[in-house]
Design goal:
heterodimer, A: globular, B: mainly beta, 12 strands
């Protein structure tokens, strides 16, 4: 069964560094999402992406964040200058009909 | 806008006992409702969903949930739990309309601990 994949599973970076989190959504899905889950808190929507552009973003998704679908298969989330509070689990999802399919997540640790 | 409240942050239960995990939501529009499960060190997996029709929906692993519109609830139940059901359970909603309402709004999660 097709599944959403994410790499890396764990990323450790220093404050101020740029990170790129990678996702490969299910191939025939058209809507893509990034969510994050800070330890002990609820899952939060970051951004949705459709037809090669952002369709909605949350207030969390400021100028430090960007998304890209560079080659028709990968879907990336870039954080330009990481902050301590960006430490979280980041989940990618793709949508078919009414169901979002989630990847296993990338745990980002900013030190 | 929507919001989700999961009333119990932790639910300890003995193996083979029944369990109910509670979820209430608020929304100004009609919504779809979901329960996701997250096993330790794994991603989010859909347990079940309510879209329309029968208010009792059955999902994987013997779980079921009942949509109650008047009480704006979508409680998750299982008549007999196993050790392997130990996980974090999340209730989520999204608006039925297309476009910007496709995003999921999440509850805080309920940690189910099944003890022998």
């Amino acid at each position: 069964e097709p599944e959403v994949t994410q790499t890396p599973s764990h990323q450790v970076t220093q404050m101020g560094q740029e990170v790129i989190l990678r996702c490969v959504p299910i191939s025939n899905h058209l809507y893509f999402y990034w969510y994050r889950q800070i330890l002990g808190q609820k899952v939060e929507f970051l951004v949705s992406f459709y037809n090669n552009e952002i369709s909605e973003k949350s207030e969390i998704f400021d100028d430090q964040f960007s998304v890209e679908r560079p080659d028709g298969s990968n879907f990336t989330l870039k954080i330009r200058s990481t902050k301590l509070e960006d430490s979280a689990m980041y989940f990618c999802a793709s949508l078919r009909d009414t169901e979002q399919y989630f990847g296993p997540g990338t745990r980002l640790t900013v030190t | 806008a929507q919001s989700v409240t999961q009333l119990d942050s932790q639910v300890p239960v003995f193996e083979e006992a029944p369990v109910e995990l509670r979820c209430n939501y608020s929304s100004s529009v009609s919504v779809y409702l979901f329960w996701y499960v997250q096993y330790p060190n794994q991603g989010l997996q859909l347990l079940l969903k309510y879209l329309s029709g029968s208010t009792l929906v059955k999902g994987i692993n013997g779980f079921e949930a009942e949509f109650n519109k008047s009480q704006t609830s979508f409680h998750l139940r299982k008549p007999s739990v196993h050790i392997s059901d130990t996980a974090e359970y999340f209730c989520a909603v999204r608006g039925m309309m297309a476009g910007n309402n496709r995003k999921l709004i999440w509850g805080l999660g309920t940690s189910l601990a099944v003890n022998p």
